[in-house]
Specification:
CATH architecture of one domain in chain A: Orthogonal Bundle
Structural class of chain B: alpha/beta
Structural class of chain A: mainly alpha
CATH topology of the largest domain in chain B: Rossmann fold
Strand order of the largest sheet of chain B: 6-9-10-3-11-12
Largest interface: A-B, 29 and 37 residues
CATH class of the largest domain in chain B: Alpha Beta
Oligomer: heterodimer
Number of helices of chain A: 13
Strand content of chain B: 25-35%
Helix content of chain B: 25-40%
CATH architecture of the largest domain in chain B: 3-Layer(aba) Sandwich
Shape of chain B: globular
CATH superfamily of one domain in chain A: ABC transporter involved in vitamin B12 uptake, BtuC
CATH superfamily of the largest domain in chain B: P-loop containing nucleotide triphosphate hydrolases
Low-confidence stretches of chain B: none
Chain lengths: 328, 497
């Protein structure tokens, strides 16, 4: 109960910061809250948030998955190429899911079975996936359909941001997996102390592998929403997406050292990044500042990630201090 | 040569949940070897760490060469002339011997580069002075542990240390290496260097030391001239306390009791060589031996934590495979490591979660983990074990060592394990909590659980075991009924090289 309250309190802080950000942007430029922008934010949230949800499982084990961004794009590219070669649009969905899961499986095998450091293994697959999609895209770009059932189901139905509700749905499934299912329980145990978990008779390699599979699956599903929302894949599209998704996870309160994860935090964290990206556009436009909003977004995101994690570190330190004093 | 160079008075030190040093006393004269003795957990290492500034003392005075001192770190202590030679050596295998000796104060040539030639020349000179025959230009990692230790001593001498602390220096040495070490120590004595010698080996103490100080439970017990004290007196001073109670006179388990675990020809190089034994139902089987005898390695191999090259394991007469902890646990074996923080606990998780870690499966109904039931069961079992915790939600890192140990016992009771392997079950646990732990183990045994207990405290072995296996260098050298397991007999087999 105590833990639950604490978790709730932490979520409340992040949610409050998100609301404050929205208020600030709206105050600086009221157009920010125009319906079309809210819808656009809600629909672009989907791919990022779904990726964040997936990678939360890996980060909870104390690992990292750098490949999710390029894997997402690779999945969208391969499936898009098939679509342009005449495959029916619905067939792209299982293809994207399959490719994401396949990469997740490869990452999992490299890290859990072959004991490669997660950073290096997923750096490798990240580069591999980026190269793969660049080769396939070349020229011409890949175009997904617009205004079809595909877009209505996964992105925007008559101005209604469907993607947002998908995110809520996936978040509920992830929360179940993380908190109420054996797999999540063991993933968090591995993140707290992998060796102690193994010595408790738990097949840690298998559960670690599954965390990477979930992360890859997330990237594959994210690809569906990405394709439905953005519809065009060019050669450098989506570079750095993984960093946004991972930053969202850290902002959301999942511990980089593993063992502690917040599913709702990951959603709110990625929402915060979407709001910042869009809000800065409006603010810069309002004040006629001739700066690329993407770069300013990076500056601000960088600061927020460091501050969020720093607050976590300080809080933990203080908590420890109080407790040890009590004991003495 | 008889001047007092070091005096530590009324030293106090507490850690969360443990009063490690109470009114401790120690002194050292120039040119003497002063043995510091006591069981594991008696406070010897803590006292030395307080001396070197690794731990900050809570109270007391330290006088060095007549001046009060208060070191904040090991570098200050070293500067003042104190060097500590650890059990585990603190040197870098990839550097040469000379580079290790002069690390942190390398001679610089022409203001730009490190003068390796000068270092090697100086090192050779030092070795010559101490009568040690080591080539300073070879990589340290290529030397035996014994020779590495000599390099570390040489390094201390090169720092002009007047006080050397040797913490179990012979634990990993061969006999000829021990002889060489003693020769060097005798030379250092002549040079007026005072040495604090920590060891469990009685024969070495009587041979090399001039005086003996005994500590027990963090307190000073006595100081005697080695010539005027018998081994028995020292042992008595070390263990003479009520916590252990009576030693067991005879086994509570008849030879006819069913065998629950049989290990045949278990080998796991390099530390486990052809180990065979049986464990009976309701028995506490003590594993005695010196540090590094291979007892923990036997336990880990049986439990599947480390791989084994050969050997068969039978449980209740049936051959089983325990190649992973998962398989071992399924067969009812559990292992409680001495290093609870590293190998046992999820420190940032609650008492409840730690208690059910091995049995989560049982709490899943229709795909959902039933946390209410988990808490209920965790509460019941921890109440039975008298775990002191404000609630089941308390994070395990906030409990004392004894209570953390109980949470792990709770984990295996909830998992319904039958065979408990306790590795140093009372290490780092307060004296009071120790006797509770003993009671707990006795209760487990009387409820029909079978226990393997690895312990370096002979009194603990004698108090609890029905039977004692003694290990030395990876082999079982004796299988003793408790009635024949005197400390002398155990030590004899433990040092049977």
């Amino acid at each position: 109960m105590n833990n639950l309250l604490k978790k709730g309190k932490q979520n409340a802080i992040i949610l409050a910061s998100l609301i404050v950000l929205i208020i600030i942007f709206a105050a600086l430029n009221p157009n920010f809250l125009e319906k079309y922008n809210v819808v656009s934010m809600a629909q672009s949230l989907a791919p990022y948030a779904i990726m964040s949800l997936g990678v939360t499982f890996v980060i909870a084990t104390g690992g990292i998955d750098l490949s999710i961004g390029t894997v997402c794009i690779a999945a969208a590219t391969v499936a898009g190429k098939l679509f342009m070669n005449g495959w029916d649009i619905w067939t792209t969905i299982p293809v994207m899911i399959f490719i994401g899961t396949l990469f997740g499986l490869i990452n999992g095998l490299l890290v859990a079975k072959l004991k490669l450091p997660a950073f290096i293994a997923t750096l490798g697959t990240m580069m591999f996936a980026r190269g793969l999609s660049a080769i396939i895209v070349s020229i011409p770009n890949i175009f997904y359909p617009t205004g079809t059932w595909f877009n209505s189901v996964f992105s925007n139905f008559n101005g209604f941001p469907v993607g947002f509700f998908w995110v809520i749905g996936f978040a509920l499934i992830c929360a179940y997996l993380m908190y109420k299912c054996k797999i999540g329980r063991y993933i968090l145990s591995i993140g707290s102390n992998e060796e102690a978990t193994r010595l408790s008779g738990i097949n840690t390699d298998m559960y670690k592998l599954m965390a990477y599979v979930i992360s890859g699956l997330g990237a594959g599903i994210a690809a569906i929403f990405w394709a439905a929302s953005f519809t065009t894949v060019a050669s450098a599209t989506g570079n750095g997406m993984e960093l946004d998704a991972i930053a969202g996870v850290y902002i959301g309160g999942t511990s980089a050292a593993g063992g502690i994860a917040s599913i709702s935090g990951s959603v709110i964290g990625s929402a915060m990044l979407v709001v910042i990206r869009s809000g800065l556009n409006f603010v810069l436009a309002k004040f006629n500042l001739d700066v690329n909003s993407t770069y300013v977004t990076y500056v601000l995101t960088g600061i927020i990630v460091v501050v969020a994690v720093l607050m976590d570190v300080i809080k933990n330190k203080n908590a420890n201090k109080v407790k040890s004093r009590k004991k003495a | 040569m008889n001047e007092l160079i070091l005096q530590m008075k009324n030293i106090e030190k507490s850690f969360p949940g443990v009063h490690a040093l109470k009114n401790a006393y120690f002194d050292l004269k120039a040119g003497e070897v002063h043995a510091l003795m006591g069981e594991n957990g008696a406070g010897k290492s803590t006292l030395m760490k307080v001396l070197c500034g690794i731990h900050k003392r809570d109270g007391g005075e330290i006088t060095l060469f007549g001046n009060p001192v208060n070191f904040h770190n090991i570098a200050q202590a070293q500067k003042a002339g104190i060097s500590i030679i650890h059990q585990e050596l603190n040197m870098i295998g990839d550097l040469t011997v000379a580079q290790n000796i002069f690390i942190g104060r390398e001679p610089i040539k022409n203001g730009i580069y490190i003068d390796d030639r000068k270092m090697e020349k100086d090192a050779r000179e030092l070795f010559g002075r101490l009568g040690i025959n080591i080539d300073p230009s070879v990589k340290l990692g290529r030397l035996t542990v014994g020779r590495q230790q000599m390099v570390e001593i040489t390094k201390a001498v090169s720092h002009n240390s007047k006080i050397l602390i040797l913490d179990e220096p012979t634990a990993a040495l061969t006999l000829p290496e021990v002889e060489e070490l003693f020769k060097i120590m005798n030379d250092l004595k002549k040079n007026g260097i005072g040495m604090i010698y920590i060891s469990h080996r009685m024969d070495e103490i009587t041979r090399i030391s001039d005086r003996v100080t005994v500590m027990r439970d963090g307190e000073y017990v006595m100081t005697k001239n080695t010539r005027e004290v018998t081994k028995d007196e020292i042992v008595k001073a070390m263990v003479g306390r009520v916590v252990y109670g009576e030693t067991k006179k005879q086994s509570a388990v008849p030879v006819s009791a069913p065998v629950v675990l049989e290990v045949r020809n278990l080998s796991a190089p390099p530390m486990v060589k052809d180990v065979s034994f049986v464990l009976r139902k309701g028995e506490i089987l003590g594993f005695a031996g010196l540090m590094g005898a291979g007892r923990t390695e036997v336990a880990r191999a049986i439990f599947g934590a480390d791989s084994k090259t050969s050997g068969e394991i039978f449980i209740n007469g049936k051959k089983v495979k325990t190649d992973t902890p998962e398989a071992a646990v399924k067969n009812g074996i559990c292992y409680l490591s001495e290093d609870r923080k590293r190998y046992g606990l999820l420190l940032i998780k609650s008492v409840a979660e730690n208690s059910v870690l091995a049995s989560v499966d049982r709490y899943i109904s229709a795909g959902w983990i039933n946390d209410r039931k988990i808490k209920k069961d965790a509460k019941a079992i921890n109440e039975k074990l008298k775990t002191k915790t404000p609630s089941m939600d308390q994070l395990v890192k906030n409990l004392s060592g004894g209570n953390q140990q109980k949470v792990i016992v709770a984990r295996w009771l909830l998992q319904n394990s039958d065979i408990f392997i306790f590795d140093e079950p009372t290490r780092g646990i307060d004296v009071g909590a120790k006797s509770e732990m003993y009671e707990l183990m006795e209760n487990l045994a009387s409820e029909g659980k079978s226990i393997i207990m690895i312990s370096s405290e002979l009194s603990e072995i004698q108090r609890l075991s029905d039977r004692v296996l003694v290990m030395c260098e990876g082999r079982i050298t004796a299988d003793l009924d408790i009635s024949e397991a005197s400390q002398e007999t155990i030590m004899k087999y433990a040092t049977m090289r």
